[in-house]
Amino acid sequence: MSDEDLVVSYLDSQDDKYFSIIYQRYSGKVYGKCLSFFKNDAEALDAVQDVFIKLLVNIGSFKEKSKFSTWVYAVTYNYCIDVIRKNKNLPVTDFDVKNENLDFVDEVDDHWITQIDSNTIEKVMDMMNEGDKAILLMKYMDELSIKDISGIINKTESAVKMQLKRAKSRFKLIFSKLENAF
Predict the structure, then answer these.
(1) Against a cut of 0.70, is the pTM above it?
(2) 83 & 120 share domain
(3) 80: three-class secondary structure by DSSP
(4) Which of 80, 103, 148, 162 is deepest in the core (most CB within 10 A)?
(5) Both 76 and 136 in a single domain?
(6) Is position 163 within any domain?
(7) What is the tally of structural domains in the chain?
(8) What percent of the chain has pLDDT over 70?
(9) Same-domain status, 9 and 80
């Protein structure tokens, strides 16, 4: 059965076996995404349970405008960002772009990133704000398209491209500062 068929069957019958199949298909992916945000096994496992409760409660709101997997990813991503914001007492502003004086060209060349070792990439990512980190992870780790990211964060494709460009610029700036520190 496709994911969409499972959703329809669950909604029609309220039979838990359909939701159990969804859980089996996605729990590993949700866990991996939660672990990438929280870096702690216990927190990630708690988050998985919370995400699946959200999925169960809101499954009727899935309207098939995107793939079910994209919807699951969006719920997971939004849950993780909300928890991080609450823990850091950050304002809840979905990817609001502040007026910043960042000098960047139209496209930030990212071929140079292949020359950086994974430990350094992780250090740089840990120093970035959550919005930049999340959009870079969606694009480069999860290999989501601009269109999919746009649907997840509820921004236009143009806004996603601009945010991605700025996040890459900030990544490069932090990397340069780290590199110069050694």
Answers:
(1) no
(2) no
(3) helix
(4) 80
(5) no
(6) yes
(7) 2
(8) 84
(9) yes
Q: CA 153, CA 136: separation in Å to the nearest integer? A: 13
Using alpha carbons, list the distances in angstroms from residue 66 to 12, 70, 106, 151, 162. 20, 6, 29, 8, 22
Inter-residue contact 139 to 168 (CB < 8 Å): no
State what percent of residues in the chain have pLDDT above 90. Answer: 29
Least confident of 4-13, 61-70, 92-101, 120-129: 92-101
How many CB atoms within 10 Å of residue 34?
26
In a domain, 151, yes or no: yes
Do residues 121 and 54 share a domain? no
Let me know whether 68 and 133 are in one domain.
Answer: no
Pair (132, 66) in one structural domain: no
Tokens of 52: 């699946």
> For residues 104 and 171, is the Cβ–Cβ distance under 8 A?
no
* Confidence band of 61 (pLDDT split at 50, 70, 90): confident
Q: What are the distances in angstroms from CA 19 to CA 8, 40, 74, 121, 163?
A: 10, 26, 18, 37, 35
In a domain, 74, yes or no: yes
Q: Does 98 have pLDDT greater than 50?
A: no
Residue in this structure with the two tokens 């772009």, named with its chain if needed: 97
* Euclidean distance between CA atoms 118 and 124, whole angstroms: 10
Classify residue 103: in a domain, yes or no. no
Q: Do 139 and 132 form a contact (C-beta atoms < 8 A)? A: no
